[in-house]
C-alpha cells in the first residue's frame, strides 16, 4: 500500500489480541518502539476521533485543524528550530535532538513499519500524526527522559491521563506489573502512577499551538500548562537507581 492509498480506520473496534501480543514484545524489549504503534493502532482509534473533536471545540482548535501543519516536518526544519531563543521550549528541543540523536522524522518512520494509516488524507489521521510527532516535546515539558525505560513509562501514564487512549493505559499498566519483578520496582510503580496524576492535573496539551509553544520560555510554559514536577521520578534519578 502506498501513502496515497492509505486509509484511516474510523471504526472503534479494538484488537485486544494484537495489542496484548505487541505488549508482551514491548515489555521484553523496551527499545522495540514499533510495538507501541501496534498497540496504539489496536486500541486508540476511538480516542483519536474524540481528541480531534475536542480540538475543534477549543478557541484556537479550528484554526489549527484548518492549517493542518505537519509537525514532523516543522520539527525537522533545522532553520526553524535553530531560530528558537535560548531558554525556550524550542531550544530545549534542539538540545534534546543533539543529545539523543532522535528526530521527529525517525519516529514517524518507525510508525510506518507496517502501517500507513496515519499517512492517510483524513483529519483523524492528521490528528494521530500530530499526537505522535509531539511526543518528544512532552518529554521536554515533563522532564521524563526519553532514553530511560522508566521515563517512557511515566510519560505513557501521563499521556493516558491526557488522551484517554486505552493503548497508553495498557502500556502503563504493563510497565507497572513488570515493576513487581525488578529491584526498586515499587518505587518505579509510584513514579508511573505519579505520571498519571500529573497528566490529570495539567492543561490539555493536544490543544496547544506547538509552533507558538516552541518560542515560549520553558519554565513559563510549564507553569502555564500546570505541568507539575515529577518528584518521585526525579528522586529515582538522583539516587542513580535503574528501573525498567
Written overview of the protein:
- The chain has 244 residues and is mostly helical.
- It has one domain (16-238).
- Helix 3 (45-57) packs across helix 9.
- The mean pLDDT is 92.
- Helices cover 65% and strands 0% of the residues.
- It has 16 helices and no strands.
Features:
244 residues, mainly alpha, 16 helices
Strand content: under 5%
Spans with pLDDT under 50 lasting ≥5 residues? none
Q: How can the largest sheet be summarized?
A: none
Number of domains: 1
CA radius of gyration is 17 Å
Report the total helices: 16
* Strand/helix succession: HHHHHHHHHHHHHHHH
Q: Any idea what the shape is?
A: globular
Helix content: 55-70%
The count of β-strands is 0
Average of pLDDT: 92
Secondary structure category = mainly alpha
How is the quaternary structure best described? single chain
How far is the N terminus from the C terminus?
A: 36 Å
Q: Layout of helices and strands, plus pairs?
A:
Blueprint: H1 16-28, H2 34-43, H3 45-57, H4 61-67, H5 71-75, H6 78-82, H7 89-100, H8 104-111, H9 123-133, H10 135-142, H11 149-163, H12 166-179, H13 185-201, H14 210-214, H15 218-224, H16 231-238
Helix pairs in contact: 1-2, 2-12, 3-4, 3-9, 7-10, 11-12, 11-13, 12-13, 13-16
Amino acid at each position: 500500500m502506498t501513502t496515497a492509498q492509505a486509509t484511516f480506520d474510523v471504526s472503534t473496534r479494538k484488537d485486544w489480541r494484537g495489542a496484548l501480543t505487541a505488549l508482551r514484545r514491548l515489555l521484553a524489549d523496551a527499545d522495540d518502539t514499533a510495538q507501541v504503534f501496534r498497540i496504539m493502532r489496536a486500541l486508540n482509534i476511538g480516542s483519536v476521533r474524540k481528541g480531534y473533536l475536542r480540538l475543534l471545540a477549543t478557541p484556537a482548535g479550528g484554526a489549527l485543524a484548518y492549517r493542518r501543519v505537519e509537525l514532523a516536518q516543522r520539527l525537522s526544519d533545522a532553520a526553524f528550530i535553530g531560530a528558537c531563543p535560548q531558554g525556550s521550549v524550542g531550544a530545549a528541543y534542539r538540545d534534546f535532538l543533539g543529545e539523543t540523536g532522535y528526530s521527529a522524522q525517525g519516529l514517524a518512520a518507525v510508525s510506518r513499519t507496517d502501517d500507513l494509516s496515519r499517512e492517510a488524507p483524513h483529519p483523524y489521521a492528521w490528528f494521530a500524526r500530530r499526537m505522535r510527532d509531539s511526543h518528544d516535546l512532552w518529554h521536554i515539558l515533563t522532564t521524563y527522559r526519553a532514553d530511560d525505560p522508566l521515563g517512557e513509562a511515566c510519560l505513557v501514564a501521563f499521556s493516558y491521563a491526557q488522551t484517554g487512549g486505552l493503548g497508553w493505559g495498557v502500556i502503563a499498566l504493563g510497565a507497572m506489573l513488570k515493576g513487581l519483578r525488578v529491584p526498586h520496582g515499587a518505587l518505579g510503580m509510584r513514579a508511573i502512577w505519579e505520571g498519571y496524576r500529573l497528566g490529570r492535573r495539567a492543561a490539555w496539551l493536544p490543544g496547544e499551538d506547538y509552533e507558538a509553544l516552541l518560542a515560549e520560555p520553558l519554565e513559563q510554559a510549564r507553569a502555564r500548562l500546570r505541568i507539575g514536577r515529577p518528584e518521585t521520578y526525579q528522586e529515582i534519578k538522583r539516587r542513580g537507581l535503574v528501573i525498567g
